[in-house]
Amino acid sequence: MCINRSRLPRRCVLFLKDEKDKLLLQPETYLFGEWVGQTNTVFLTPYLPPCGSFSTIGVYGKHTENKERCQELWTVWPKGKSLVAKRFVNIEDIELPVELIYSTDTYARTPFSPLEMEILWNKKVTIIGNGTGGAKIALELARAGIGCIKLCDPEKIDFSNISRHEGDLFDAGKPKTQVLAERIYRINPAIYIETYAEDIFKQPLKKVKKILNSDLVVAATDKTSIQLLINELTHKSGIACVFGGCYEEARGGEVFYTLPGEKMPCLACLRADLKQPKKSAKIDYSTATGPEDYQGEPGLHAAIDFITCLEIQICLAILLHKVPTSRLAKLIDPRFNFILVGGALASGFYRFKKPFDIFFQPLKGPRKNCVACGDSGWLLQDMINPPSNTKDSRTNLKKEDK
Fold it and tell me: 83, 98 in Cβ contact below 8 A?
């Protein structure tokens, strides 16, 4: 039998978070990953993949001559002071030296100090909404070194999403949470990922609070009612929160954040006092018969990313807010928690005077008797004691779940 040796693997890489995680390599530990034929490289890691999207392709243990056992899996074992991987490929015995790669190698070009990297790795971030903006935020936070990310979105990727989403044609039909989880795993398999491919606000209030329980919540949904609900829940739970959004055709947008324990206006304060730009054109939904007939606001992906990338840096600045030596943390000032971001077509639109017009919009607050940050929040009360004549997802949250 003639074997095409050019197609045989030539390199084997084993990814670990750090040297301490070598302890994960116990006998009979399964290894996950992929054999990339284009580069003839085998990637292995002991971290369990999300959504069952990556195959078991290796096992750590003692070397064996049993061809049947090695036929399907790479067997990794110590040889001297290093590791080797072995497998029978087309009845040929292949042995490769194992190259250890740590997360410090993949994060080598971030601008953060070792202290900042350690702090970011120990942070949890919950992202509500995994569309254009939420997807970008999730992947960039993973690339920045966040150690735990919770993804929440009930929708699946549609072909109409491809031009603006981090997913591609081959992801159509998959839950958005799964698409992002798979891509985060490829960035750093050691990141802990939780996925909620459901409307979490249909769950009991106790479970909603558990999902939101993190160091930062990113409200990346475009539904105002849900944003206000997240605003109230995070305020009362003492959790920092970032809200981002795009205006018509992504000509501009906004980034707004709240911090626990600070005297600053919340999202409900903002929405009550500040007028938003009026749309010059409306999408006709008169013939809509179901959710599939509703389309998102048109906008160039690059224009949305321009706004989202600023939001991502605000997220990181908040997570590093208590680090005196962090340069990024100096962006955070409770007096200036509202940023207006004008894009390429912003000149003369809303409050923007020129293209790429970015500035802090001064706000007064918090407002007296605010429905969210005041003594009693009306949205939360509505969740606990739902009115009988509404069909909103909040109505499933019951009093006993408080």
Answer: yes
Q: Report the distance separating Cα 299 and Cα 278, nearest Å.
A: 16
Strands of 90-201, DSSP E: 92-102, 124-128, 148-152, 192-196
d(CA 200, CA 207): 8
pTM above 0.85, yes or no: yes
The predicted-structure confidence for 101-156, as pLDDT tens digits, reads as follows 999 999 999 999 999 999 999 999 999 999 999 999 999 999 999 999 999 999 99
Q: How far is CA 337 from the centre of its chain?
A: 22
- The rounded distance, in Å, linking the Cα atoms of 259 and 332 is 10
Q: In this structure, is residue 395 part of a structural domain? A: no
Average pLDDT over residues 189-206: 96
Which residue range(s) make up the domain with 310?
122-276+299-384
Tokens of 236: 């009362």
**Residue whose pair of structure tokens reads 């939360």 in the numeric block:** 380
* pLDDT of the residue at 37: 83
Residues 150 and 270 in one domain: yes
Contact 313, 328 (CB under 8 A): yes
Q: Give the tokens for residue 335.
A: 């007096």
For position 65, what pLDDT does the model report? 56
Domain finish residue from 54, 77, 105: 105
Strand arrangement, sheet containing 216-219: 192-196, 148-152, 124-128, 216-219, 240-246, 252-258, 338-342, 358-360
Which single residue is written with the structure tokens 């409770």?
334
CA distance 311 to 341: 10
Q: State the Cα–Cα distance between residues 17 and 393, nearest whole angstrom.
A: 40
Q: What is the dihedral of CA 347, 353, 358, 362, to 10 degrees?
A: -140
Domain membership of residue 214 (yes or no) is yes
Q: Are residues 37 and 183 both part of a single domain?
A: no
Number of domains in the chain: 2
Question: Are 140 and 175 found together in one domain?
Answer: yes
User: Does 187 lie in the same domain as 149?
Assistant: yes
CA distance 134 to 308: 8
What is the per-residue pLDDT across 218-269, written as a single tens digit (0 to 9) for each? Answer: 999 989 999 999 999 999 999 999 999 999 999 999 999 999 999 899 999 9
38-86 confidence digits (pLDDT tens): 899 999 999 999 876 778 999 998 655 555 455 578 999 999 999 999 9
